Amino acid sequence: MADAASEQEPTKTSFEWLPEGMEPLADGEYDAIILGTGLKECVISGLLSVKGKRVLQIDRNGYYGADGASLNLSTLFEKFRAGEPPSNLGSNRDYNVDLIPKFIMATGNLTKMLLHTKVTKYLDFKSIACSYVYKAGKIHKVPATPQEALSSGLMGLFEKRRFRNFLIFIDAYKLEDASTHQGRDLTKMTMRELYTDFGLQPDTNEFISHAMCLELDESHMDSPAVSTVQKLQTYCYSLKRYGTSPYIYPLYGLGGLPEGFSRICAIHGGTFMLNQDIDEILFDEQGVAYGVKAGNQMAKAALIIGDPSYFPQEKIEPTGVVVRCICLLDHPIENTNNAESAQIIIPGPQVGRVNDIFVCCVSHGLNVSADGVYVAIVSTILEKGDPDEDIMPGLKLLGRIQQRFMSVTNTYKPVADGLQDKCFISTSLDATSHFETDVDDMMQLYKRVTGEELDMNINADSVEGDY
User: Fold this and answer.
1) pLDDT tens-digit series, residues 399-430
2) Closest among 104, 68, 50, 62 to 426, alpha carbons compared
3) How far apart are CA 177 and CA 82, in angstroms?
């Protein structure tokens, strides 16, 4: 009987590299081990698996998304140790609250990635209702049509004409076609010089740069204008796509994005382990990473990819501190025309700051909260040393707040590109309310890992992806 029982026991796979007393973690050997299920990590795992790579993806949390997850009401209160949710907030299942709020540029690179991998098959999107910019103590709608531009309180009558001429130039400009340049070399002319050339006033420059080009501070003003102009073109094209704002957002919250890319990875044979932390990343004598260890289990791979929180301190360096405040409201934000969703950008110079403050508002129409409850999230980079002081200009716009949850998060970037030690580390998600700068990091990470540029030639208006 004992012999029969032993014959029925499954044979455990053994590897020559596995030390005595250790067991393989999952299948043991992979082409890539990815640590964390944040959006950047899930995009990389999805793209690698499509290329035929064997992928193991591990997350210490019990849900997808890592710091960018969308949580139901009880999990949100539990995470912030806020006790039991009040009954007046409605049903737990009505909530999908983003820990890190961001909107997606309708024709930007993240949309192209979603189409490229056909993740759009698993998600539904809705246009954000409107975008606003803060000026002189008030919020103003960023013009979405020529008619809105003429009636906007952001500019005087003659400035509106100059603004219109500027946008006509931007719309026609093509880097490769000198006939559209009107004698301006934007690879040499600075953004400050371009604004001056059109006679635009400093306040107009500020709202264009911060609310439309999505520049984060004033450093772009003395750099070649071509990069900022291309950002403005993406904004304007996205705006034309939907007509109310340039942003779209997935129903049921941003947590659906990493889940969608994870599904692509799973379809192509990827392995996922949630609620699984690691004890250490393993390095050989030359300092090259070759695997991970968790308890008495090990897994080996040629590439170790992940978010900064999984790597030794000597592999990362701090980039700043981000303050985010999730606020539950029983009313829409004032002066947004009762919009179910909105973005408000407060340019730093308007409130005596270097960095901008971002306000995102979403609600029941996007399947993220109970009917009548609005989720507004204020975020910025810590400057004053007091988180409340840093976000106060944003909080003042919200009116009465039912419940608020504050987080103060250190952000990091890798100290090296990973080509030598095979540790390919993403940069922490930033304080902005959009994905444009994060997508740039995602594309650079992909190139570092694969040695190839990610093909982004797909038309963002397309309804079908490549795979």
Assistant:
1) 999 999 999 999 999 999 999 999 999 999 88
2) 68
3) 58
**Range list of H helices, 208-317:** 226-242, 256-267
Phi first, then psi: what are they for 313, rounded to 5°? Answer: -60, -30
CA distance 303 to 445: 12
Neighbours of 118 (CB within 10 A): 16
- Interhelix angle for 226-242 vs 157-172, to 10°? 100
Q: What is the pLDDT of residue 83?
A: 92
Length of the chain: 467
Q: What per-residue confidence (pLDDT) applies to 6?
A: 45
In whole angstroms, what separates CA 373 from the centre of its chain? 24
Among candidate residues 431, 45, 85, 429, the one with its CA nearest the CA of residue 267: 45
Pairing mode, if any, of strands 297-306 and 289-294?
Answer: antiparallel
- Within 8 A by CB and 6+ apart from 241, the residues are 106, 107, 460, 461
- Enumerate residue ranges in the chain where pLDDT < 50: 1-7, 9, 463-467
Give CA–CA dist 131/156, Å, rounded: 20
Supply 146's token pair.
Answer: 């020529």
DSSP label of 209: I
Q: Residue 70 and residue 249: Cα distance in Å, rounded? A: 13
- Look at residue 12 in the predicted model and tell me its pLDDT: 59
CA distance 33 to 223: 39
pLDDT at 4 (0 to 100): 46
Q: Where do we find the tokens 């009917």?
A: 371
Q: Decide if 57 contacts 270 (C-beta within 8 A).
A: yes
Tell me how far the alpha carbon of residue 415 is from its chain's centroid: 21
Contacts of 465 (CB under 8 A, 6+ apart): 114, 115, 116, 117, 118, 119, 120, 458
User: What's the CA gap between 29 and 179, in Å, rounded?
Assistant: 56
Radius of gyration of the chain (CA): 24
